[in-house]
Amino acid sequence: MLRNKNLIPLSRQHQHALALCVRIERAAPIEESQSPQWQEEMAEKFEGEIKIHFLAEEQIVFPAARNYVELTPLVERLLAEHQFLRTFFTKAGLRELRAEEITDFARKLSEHIRTEERELFERVQSLLPPQDMDRVGRELELALGGTAESCRLPSPKQ
């Protein structure tokens, strides 16, 4: 199913995060000496885009999805994953991740994004009436501000 125009800003941000995951996976195994650089990039990505992205999902998309009882377990799971992923980002910001944890982070973030795209977004856009999807889109536009179009280019050293 094509992505509803109101969810496209979140899907674009998912693509940005997946690009980081792919780069980490391709660089695996990460050497301990490269760990600080990866953690710096992870922390920058979180502060520049993902923190706001998570909040927008939690405050706009998840509540809309919770209006449908069949989506409640999925929303609860995704909320728990947000909390779990935040711990990785916090540790990255403090440069406390071991090299192997960076690869684990990339796998978990990638799985999380694919679940949102393939399960949550597909179901939300099929269940919500057009006027509710439009409202979600307007609220996302306000919540995401300039982050919806931001994209950090990979650094040439990795």
Question: Fraction of residues in helices?
Answer: over 70%
- Rg from C-alpha positions? 16 Å
Instruction: Kindly report how far apart the N and C termini lie.
Output: 35 Å
| Average pLDDT reading | 93
The structural domain count equals 1
> Strand fraction band?
under 5%
- Count of helix runs: 5
> Mind describing the biggest β-sheet?
none
How would you portray this structure in words?
Helices cover 75% and strands 0% of the residues. With 158 residues, it is an all-alpha fold. The protein has one domain. Helix 1 (8-27) packs antiparallel against helix 2. Residues 149-158 have low confidence and may be disordered.
Task: Describe the structure concisely.
With 158 residues, the chain is mostly helical. It has helices spanning 8-27, 35-66, 72-93, 99-127, 130-144.
Keywords:
158 residues; mainly alpha; 5 helices; 75% helix; elongated
